[in-house]
Amino acid sequence: MSFARKISSTRFLVCSDIHGNYAAIRQVIDNMRVWGAGRLAVLGDYVGYGPSPNEVVQFLRKTAGEMVAASGKANDVIMVLGNHDRWVLGETDLLEPTHVRALKSLRWTRAIFRRENLDFLNQINNKVALGSVGFFHACPQDQVPFPYLDPLHRLPDKIRGNHIEQPWTDWKTNPFGRNVLWPAVKTMRETRLRIAFVGHSHRPSVTGWKDNGFFFPKPTQNWEDGNSRSDVYQIEEGAIYIINVGSVGFPRDGDSRACFSIFEPNDSQVRMCRARYDVGETIKEYARKLELDSTSGTETTFDPDTLSDLVSLLGDGDVKSDLFDPF
Fold it and tell me: CA 40, CA 30: separation in Å to the nearest integer?
């Protein structure tokens, strides 16, 4: 995408789940200029899986500091913690991951993570609300373990296909509708939120609520050039929306390009975007970090199977091992 839009002081770029992928987050931040976004929201999981947790956090520290210094507005940058960040911080209310790939990655990250980056993560909240818009890692409700607001993966195609515009009103008969989607919407109604941005599942989606039922809208416009993609979703007046912005560093929906959202609070639409980045840079960084581990005597390192699975996921955005889900 070669054009750049005029910077809007109200327009957000919203992203999540970077997971130590430095090349991917640099590409996404570059897209702030492309889409004219003057504000940034990052929904957590800065670390875990990827080879560059320190570089990612340092880059975001620098980016956030420069943006706030330029505008003089602290809420031009919103950051919340994800479960991987809270694991690195050692929060006791979250059980450590039981899935072997996530656990081995966590132990490696803890071993090499710098004190100043830990201190920075310690300053970040678990959730932020600006008026009727909320920013969360996984969901609006306080629920542990974190649920996955992921209707594209958790609901049959028939339900989603039959309820693009007409509400799905018998959601109570479905465990995902009853136990995951409804608690999120219930919390949003109680806290007067109209839009909730979430991540965590690594799969982008838009879910709406109106007339006592859920609906799963299709984009009204789309644009694709192979490197970038944009899908536009209309925001209906009076409806409630849960917008899952997918993952920057490790998408799991079959598209390996970095995923993010563009949101203009004064507009009636949200864009779901993709941007290609240099995956090879991230793969090479694994090799470099492993060599550093071997020469420095670090006891904790990635094992070959974990590395193989992560490299495969980077390449095609498709989870082939249940050792990554749900974490």
Answer: 12
Q: Where are the alpha helices (DSSP H) in the chain?
A: 22-35, 53-71, 83-89, 100-112, 115-122, 151-154, 157-162, 175-176, 182-190, 279-296, 304-316
Amino acid identity, position 81:
L
Residues contacting 90, CB < 8 A, separation 6+: none
Handedness of CA 309, 313, 316, 319 (dihedral sign): positive
Name the strand (E) or helix (H) holding 229.
strand 228-234
Q: Span 273-297, mean pLDDT?
A: 85
pLDDT level of residue 4 (50, 70, 90 thresholds): low
Sequence letter at residue 136: F
Joined tokens for residue 44:
């957590």
- What is the tens place of the pLDDT at every residue in 54-96? 999 999 999 999 999 999 999 999 999 999 999 999 885 666 6
270 HSE (CA, 13 A, CB side): 27
Q: Computed from CA positions of residues 282, 288, 290, 292, in that sequence, does the dihedral angle turn out positive or negative? A: negative
Is residue 136 scored above 90 in pLDDT? Answer: yes
Please, what are the domains in the chain? 8-134+219-316 (3.60.21.10)
Task: Report if pTM > 0.70.
Answer: yes
Q: Could you give the C-alpha distances from 273 to 8, 164, 242, 262, in angstroms and in order?
A: 17, 20, 16, 7
Measure the CA angle with vertex 323, ends 143 and 28; round to 5°. Answer: 70
In the chain, the amino acid numbered 83 is N
Answer whether 127's CB lies under 8 Å from 117's CB. Answer: no
Per-residue confidence (pLDDT) for residue 96, from 0 to 100: 67
